[in-house]
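Schema walkthrough. Field components (list of strings):
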Amino acid sequence: MAFEPSAVGVLILAAMALYLAAFVTLVVRARTVGLGLFAVGFATAAAAFVARWVEVGHVPMQNLFEVFLTMAMLVLPVSLFCRHVLKVRAGPWDAMIACLVVVPMVLGVFFPEKFPKFTSEPHPLMPALQSSLFGPHVASYLLAYIILAKALVQALGRLFVGERPSEEGVVSYEAAIYRTAAFGFPFLTLGLVLGAWWGKLAWGDYWNWDPKEQWSLVSWLVFLGYFHLRSACGKRYPRLTCALIVLGVVCILITLFWANLSRLFEGLHSYA
Amino acid sequence: MKRLRQIWLWAPLAAMGLLAVLSVVGAFLGAERAGVMFNSPPLVVFWFLLAALLVACFFVSRGLLRSPGLLAMHLGSLAILAGAMWGSDTGHRLATKVIGREKIPHGYMVIDEGTANHVLVDAKGSPIGELPFDVRLDDFRITYYAAKGPWLLGLGAVPGRGEPEGFVRARFFEWKEGEEAAIGDTPLRVRVLQYLPRARPVLDVEGRIVGARPDEKSNTPAMEALVAWNDRQLRGWIVVPEGGEYGVMSLAPLLGALEGAPDHPELGLYLAEPQGMPKDYFSDLAVIRDGKVVVEKTIEVNDPLHRGGYHFYQADYDKEQEAYTILAVRSDSGLWAVYAGFVLLVVGAFVRFWAGRAWAGLGRRGRHGV
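Field assembly_structure (string):
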């Protein structure tokens, strides 16, 4: 086992343990302790993010390792915002999202040879990435991904648990799906547009039909389809709207993983 | 009427679904073939239908006109579509036929340092047209990230005529202090006697380098080497000047003394800084119209030059000698419509989904009970 005992590696491992502990604690309904562990996990992930930034000398969003590091830091703030502003149920699954986000990084730190795409080895920024749009473009997407992952949890809840009477202070699954998707979709749109603008500046074309670009368009279209359906039909097709949310997140996962990991999709974004 | 309403309900969803499916197919095809597919006649028809559908929205959907966010999103999508169509190859051909505008949609320019050019070529290098002005390349250069590891030792020639100043053409080889190494496939051998990672030169009374001494304040190294060819030897120092990227020891005394040695007095043993990956590429450009320089700009990746309806991007370069640059040239037709569409789409999305409905938790309730 080729473990690199770097500060970032240790912090990531600690964050994963804390997120996992938070999930278990929240499942057994020890809410205060669970939230406390979730918060410490967030602080640990944030410390890893800062340490990585210092180590590489640029905002750490260059490769898959850094992308997941950033996302690991976003889950708790998104969860708290959804709970307190959007009144969306925040359960143990938020901690599970955080835990799953950390897994690829742990693989990259522990098994860099088996999972070279998740490696934590730092690289300087290639010329195309040295843009003021780099941070906003990637950050918009990552924020959208985390928010829409939360919409996925609500959609799965609606599909497999069924609609329950609204608990005090939180809205129904149906409303929660809409609110989280509506919260995340503008960020998805912003990420897409910033990417197109940046592509124009770096490569000369705002749209290159690159596989990753096309998958990101597919994700955007699926969520757009959800809103069209929701707007036109209201709550008439709950299973169909939930399925669209699930499909949208699947497309996001393909954009994030498959377009990077598969040789099927060699393209301008292969470095990411 | 009910049937018409149903068609109106499902038509946008069908269009979005079809575009999504086509994009998935395009992702599997790869960028180049996907570009061909999306510009093929059947897909051109699809783009027109999509645009028509968006236009129809403004007449059919009353709710659209009441919602500023939705209106902006639809207008934005339409502007992006219209701008992209206007800026496409077909759009350029149409513009030439209809309004007589002669503009080349895209191409490349290969420009040697110190020369001007106005000919556009395709990806294979065949000429495809001319610009109404010249673009001159004053200088092309690359900056590199500092690389970790020892400095490189190699046999090289001092720049000849026509080669850029400071350019080193050398063949590097493995070396270790105290050990002898072969210099590539030549009969020369070199033994590194001393390597000082931080050093300053020791000069004689005439200012010639006769040695080096360690100096922690220096950032450049020095090396004492013994070069041998059969029974003849040359011992000397390679000292890299402070802030320099390489130092050189001439091999002329050794090679010149031998019968049949290559007549190349500028052959030298180089100690060169290892280069990391390229940090950026720069082309100093000047646009010349009617013999006068109308604009000068140093372009780099992410910072193109915009002039005369074209954008000029740093695309490629001479990898051997860095003596020429290759620019990607793109027509700006339709671009401002696309940019306006981007702004409308993003602002519309935030207004539509953030103003009011998504924030129902703060006290307001939307039409759909959210």
